[in-house]
Fold each of these.
Amino acid sequence: MKKNKKNEPMLPQELETISFIEALDDGYVHDCRIVSEEVEAGKIHFDRVLFESVRFLDSEWERSEFADVVFVNCDLSNADMSRAVFHRVKFENCRLLGTDFTEASIRFTHFQECRLDYAVFGFSHINEVSFERSVLRQGDFYEVDLKNTQFLDCELDESNFTGTSLKGIDFSTSRFEELQLSSELLSGCKVSTDQALLFAQKLGLIIAE
């Protein structure tokens, strides 16, 4: 996936800093900067919003929409973002432990230096997405429509990619000792030499020393 400024979140150069309550207008939050708060949220449409050092408490954002949104140093652990829509979104240095992205639509989105242990992406549609220098231990990518997606220098140990085609996916710069995979869906996946030994075992090959 090539970096393209058109695929980055498009935020105004100046954003008014206000509280979440002040920003919320009939289920819509737009064109603002929200800083250092504890927020409880529901089904909301977010457009051109910057969150900095915000902690989201037991947030249920099922079917919410995020367009041109940036999260910096935020805690979204255990948030329910199932069936949500993400378009040009960036998560930078965020905690997303156990966050639920089940059946979400995620496009042109970047996760940079994030903690995503136990995050659930099952049955989601992921296109033009990058995970960079992030930890995704025991992440769940079960039966995901995964296209044009990068895992760059990530921790992926014990993540589950069962039922997901890995054609065009590059794991070679990431680290893991165990992955759950569907051997029939490995064709076209790029791995390092050491990782190839693990994948060969998944295919039932016996490697002579």
Amino acid sequence: MKLAQALGANALADKDPLPPHLRELLLARDPMFVASHWLLAGAAVVGVIVALATVRPWGLTVPRRLLLTIVWTLGVFMIARSIGVLGFGFAGDALLLTGVRPAPVEHAALARTLALWDLLLWSPFFLLWGMCWATAGWRLGRRGSLAKNRRNAPSAQVGA
């Protein structure tokens, strides 16, 4: 999506949970926002490479601790974002939509609309994405410990 937006598309750009002044810059295709979209598209490509490194044979050349750290960090960050630890997410959206946390007076309707979009689209997406990263980290860690156990296990003696 960020690549499409960097190339000029407006796919869901108006649903990005940003304060109004930043939202206007995004929709006006401000050069800094276009540059940030290119950076995020590049980060997505790196994420694909990291994900593939957890399951492809060439990924064995990457130090396992580094790969585990990256994968678990991404998983925890994505899950935290979906829950609302970072301000957005299920908790923050629910608090705003139920009126427990008041919306900014100057753009209350927009804040509620964006919270609803975040609650129904972005937060579930980040939760799913984070769970995928956490699963990849768990499987990568487990694969490493299984290999270690096999190396350390006494081999069966033939003809004993």
Amino acid sequence: MTDRPRLDERTVAGHLELLEELLSGLEATPGPTAERALDAIATLAEVYGEALARVMDRATAASPELGAALADDVLLAHLFVLHGVTTGKAPASEPGAAFIPLDTLARRPATARAAP
């Protein structure tokens, strides 16, 4: 457990909106610095996606109930969808629930684009 306070769904949704605005601003900024920043973000998202997949694999293997509980969390469910992590469940849709657009951070890292 952590001593850090948890964010409520409204705060998470606000952070996600801000993230989308910041990413859109970066995408609209020409030049190599913006490209490198977007590549860094995409690479970080890819690593985090792999980490989420590993957590889900281990949680489900240890306890199917734990895997189901993780998939029931609105934010986690959307992150699983964003990163292509299979949970066996569709994300919950609740009014006011956090929503992450599927194209958020979908940019491929520089290493993936380097090949012709």
